[in-house]
Here is the input.
Amino acid sequence: MVTIWTPDLSPFNGPKYLALADAIAAAIASGELVVGAKLPPQRQLADRLKVTVGTVTRAYDEGRRRGQLEARVGSGTYVKGPDQPVPIVPAGGPLALDGAMAPLGPQAQMMSEAMQSLAKDSHCLYQCLPYPQDNGLGHQRQAFLRWLNDAQGLPVSDEQLLLTCGGQHGISVTLEALCEVGDTVLCEGMSFPGIRMACERQGLKAVGLAMDSEGLVPEALEAACRQYRPRVLYLTANLQNPSCVTMPKARRQAIVALCRRFDVWVVEDDVQFVDPANKPPAFFSLAPDITVFISSFSKRYSGSLRVGFLLFDAKLRQRLLFCLRASVWTVSSWQLELVSRWLSDGQMQRLETWLSEEMRARRRLCERILGPGLLQGDASSFNCWLALPEPWRANDFARAALEMGVKLRTGEDYAIGRFAPPQGVRLSISQPASHALLEEALTAVKKLLDDGPGLSQAIL
Here is the structure.
């Protein structure tokens, strides 16, 4: 039976959704709402409180984030008991579409089970306490190698693998190993801001190149190679950030040929989550002798898991290892142990399956609200690129969206050097904690698209 509970929000300050979340917490603490009580449907409570349905949705999500409520699919929202596991929902702007992060589902349970198992393994605990003699413990490295060879289709030897403290660390180590101060690094015109930061820190010049619907334009690469004599080409061939383009195999082969011709290293950033069934051959598979492959588990698991890896030609090992030692000396054996267990028992692959299904469901929600064929990116992608219709300009669109409570990113946020980005925005549809919050954010985006720029956007 639905609890006919209508709180008084007047004692609580702040935004309406937080006031309602605080009222729920107070009612639970006082015993007014007991464990197992079903809260009113969102629309019914919104009508009683004279607030929007979105306000109630955000309040219920905040209650789940605090561990006080639980949502039961097809049933409603209930007060949780203290013995029930508390789901982890990211705090912060619930209508944020500006950060690509893994949606949270099985991860907390994976962590709980792995830590309980590790707590009972005294031998492994003692192994993880000292500085490791190598880059990770032996059994951890073997788990990574088996996973790379069997599940990822990347046959590598132990001499071709280095474990890092995440993808950004891998970028910094690689640039330090391959470049000298003053060298030029070529990138896609819009690229992950971490490459720009790493170049600035190491005294390297980053140059952005033209892109089209298949990614980096080979003719632009050839011209830049002649002009700058670069050391490195950095790119994201799978679900490029932020354009969400996946480069076809023929384009990859053309770029490999140019890099061989001009003696340029390829640094391939593969950190974006891609359904393994849809992955084209990696640059590392096409040209392992001139490619350094960078990836991490931040998109597969969560951003707090600072574990990544480099794959490379064995002749680079000592140079890369020296730079890694100089930066962090070693990677945490504790985190490596958790990841190696998930790789060995199949949990990481099961998590990837869940992520693919979850993102496909979110993409269907996007198509329903915004319309089919409007967004660029794979169906399982965390991000979507939205090319804006005229006369919208991207910065104006982003400001208007923020006024409606939705945060997103424009191409300008990713521009390298003086590259002129297209008029579009990146929507990180993986970020909202629930489908209801994603729907609320997308509905605001849809309204802006339908209404067009208002007079406030005009300059007289």
Remarks:
- The chain has three domains: 16-79, 107-346, 348-457.
- The longest helix spans residues 347-370.
- The first strand starts at residue 69 and ends at 72.
- Confidence is low (pLDDT under 50) at residues 84-93, 455-460.
